[in-house]
Automatic annotation (TrEMBL):
GO molecular function: ATP hydrolysis activity
Record-linked Pfam families: AAA_23
InterPro entries referenced in this protein's UniProt entry, alphabetically: P-loop_NTPase, Pol/histidinol_Pase-like, Rad50/SbcC_AAA, Spaf_1101-like
One biological process term in Gene Ontology: double-strand break repair
Origin species: Streptococcus sanguinis SK1056
Residue span(s) of domain Rad50/SbcC-type AAA: 330-538
Protein name, per record: Rad50/SbcC-type AAA domain-containing protein
Amino acid sequence: MVKKFNKKIETVYRVFSEEKVSFGVFHKTLIHLHTPASHDYKLFSNWTEDEYKAATNEQLYELFFNNKIELKKRFPMDELASSVDDSFFVDFKEYISYLFLAESILQNELEIVVVTDHNTTKGVEKLQKAVSILKANNRNYKYHPHILYGVEISAADKLHIVGIFDDNKKEVVNKWLDENLLSTEEGSYQHSLTIMNFFNENKILNYIAHFNTSNIFTKKAQLSGAYKKSLFSPTQIKFMGVNKAEVIPGLFNKLLRDFSCRPNFILDNDSHDIDGLDKNIMWFKGGKLSFQMFEEALLDYEVSVSLEQPKIEGNSYIKGVYVEKRRGNRSFLLDKSKEKDFYISFSPSLNCLIGGRGTGKSTLIDILQFALSQYCDKQSKLEFMCNHANIFILYVLDNVEYIIEVSLPDVLQENKDNILQYYGQNLEDKFSYHYIYNSLSIREWTRSQYTNVYKVESGKFKSIDKNKVLDKMFDRRYSVNELVRTADGEKITEFISDLMLKNKNLPNPNYGLRTQKLESFVAKLNELDEYRKQRKESILEIIDDFNKTQVGKLRICYEQVDSWEELRLESVLFDSDSLLSSSFDMTLSQVFRVTNVEF
């Protein structure tokens, strides 16, 4: 009995819509940015350093407010110049230069920016201040970027070493710079190895910048093999910077081959102007923006860092599950207070359930599977799930939101003899009825009687054809354990067929071969070759459709192998189970068995 619209659905949707994202997402990140604090900054890509140095306050003011007529009226130059906070900025020119850079960062929707000026950290606070000023005057910017501390130190061996650190280590770095720099223009008299040792001793992230442009592997570098061996030791180098992604494979192979070094690579933006902030973008996965989030993502590079913008394949995922509790403390899944309904949101990319035994991991997965597929393999599991009330799943399918509602019968509400009476058995309530648990009938009854699907349209909920949508939403998935358990036996074919061929059938061999002459038998074999070719094409078409959905996870391969064995005529002709003893009529499968051709 499908119930009428449940007002609880509105509550469930509101819960998931208003909940703050608590899982990690990918943040647009730029590493190695220069500010006007760098001696060679030029502001625009078509300017030289000298042109920037020669630019007047009036010239920069007019350029900044170009095409900003209303904003220019609000901030006349005299008033803007008098409002400059001299505790942050040296003069108006520096102030508006940082506004230029901050505006470009906001317009490029960068979320994390690592500032690495040449041999100084003074540009970080100034850029942070400029970003805050623009955000306060224009709330239409999508993000408030997190500006992180960094520095690019010019070493005596001509390499550039980048350090990235939290603001609580700013004084340690500044003290080292004061003691080890010739000047901010010339850099340090210390070699790269000494600089990196300092960073490592203070647990500061560091790497060699734009390494692919260095001449360290040439004779011009004049560095000993022992020095390079120490510099590129696996304990010394964790990261390496490059200015283009395509050089990474070659550099990695060389470092691995020559030094057993396996660094993760960072894309250096290295912009000295506001026009290059759209290049060499990286993506860091994490929750709330902070240096700790950035550092943890970098140290978990394989999972949390991407050199390309991540794509959510198919834009389909479970957004959240909501489970109503039963009265009388019968429900297992509850919120933290143990008094309210249970709900949990999911990430569109990667989710992991972690907890000790008995914390509800398996129960949650069982409930998700039951709500999506209506499949339950055991009566005891069904009885356990029915200790909860309604299940709601917010599902995004092809960028459209749906809510699945599955009602679980309250088995204590009526004096039923068996839970299966709620699922279509013994509706007449006969005495001594023999109940038989059948997962297929449970599935059919649950879908027809207890399941509703609603499409979310502008905050409204429209009831739709549930069968078509549910079949799209749920595929039988597999685990490594399941594959191992079935791979050694004959069940692997059944498993693959069940997994892959949903609503599809592989063509069965149906080529009949009947002949009494050798000449015609040869002709038939030619026909057989053509048949096998057509059969292979039809099977590969089905298999390829499946493989496209499982890229990087599972691949099913199909081949036809000609493996001819010597024909033992005595056994073929005279054994009691001989295929030829009763008739010369043979099916294709029998021919394959005789010749041992696999298909």
